[in-house]
Amino acid sequence: MHVVAINGSPRTKGNTTTLIHAMLDGAQAAGAEISEAHLHTLDMKGCMGCLACRTKHGVCAQKDGLSPFLEAIKTCHALIVGCPIYMYRISGQMKLFVDRAYSLYTPKEGGGYNSAVPAGKRFAMVISQGAPDPQQYVRSIRWLAGMTGGGLGMKEAGRVIHTDSHALPAAKNQALLEEAYAIGRSLVQG
């Protein structure tokens, strides 16, 4: 079993990363092999809009640091998507990933799209935000869920929304760390 995490935070020790790592720890404790794409550290380019992925059926024409992770999403058993909310929206790094993940959608005869990701996979989300209200950015969170795991036909296993992150950092929020760990285990154990 392989669990892939896509980390959209620019901070290597920030709240989003801390919670993703707790989720990965749970998955690993349940027997999964884990890998993480920390988008900020990858040499990756934005989508060129070339539409080569339409003729290559789920393969992005660009070859860069993101390429192995786009392929890993097709073969992994579960996906974790984590992102902070900046200026009311997902981070720039995560938006770049979402644009490139367009290559994971294949045209359907008669219109629309199919997922290039085999059915039966699960995904989980980590969101960190400074606002205390978990509903404050619900549109951005729903959009991200729909464009990543949900849109690819994966079933959501859980979601950790870290609110008021400036007042109580994730590393000091034991309840949230335990919730993330439990969701990570559930990705493997069902």
Query: Would you tell me which CATH topology applies?
Result: Rossmann fold
State the helix count: 6
What's the number of extended β-strand segments?
8
Distance between the termini: 12 Å
Tell me the structural class.
alpha/beta
Number of domains as seen in the coordinates? 1
- The outline comes out as globular
Per CATH, the architecture is 3-Layer(aba) Sandwich
Q: What's the CATH H-level superfamily name?
A: Flavodoxin domain
For this structure, what is the CATH class?
Answer: Alpha Beta
What level of helicity do the residues show? 25-40%
The overall pLDDT average reads 95
List low-confidence stretches: none
Order of helices and strands: EHEHHEEHEEEHEH
Summarize the main sheet. Answer: 6 strands, mixed
Radius of gyration: 16 Å
Structure, described:
The protein is α/β, with parallel strands linked by helices. It has a single domain (2-189), classed as Flavodoxin domain (Rossmann fold), CATH 3.40.50.360. The chain is 33% helix and 23% strand. It contains six helices and eight strands. It has helices spanning 15-29, 52-55, 67-75, 92-100, 138-147, 174-189; strands at residues 2-7, 33-38, 78-86, 89-90, 105-107, 113-115, 122-128, 155-162. The strands form two sheets. Strands 1, 2, 3, 4, 7 and 8 form a six-stranded mixed beta sheet that branches. Strands 5-6 form a two-stranded antiparallel sheet. Strand 1, helix 1 (15-29) and strand 2 form a beta-alpha-beta unit. Helix 1 (15-29) packs across helix 6 (174-189). The model has no long low-confidence stretch (mean pLDDT 95).
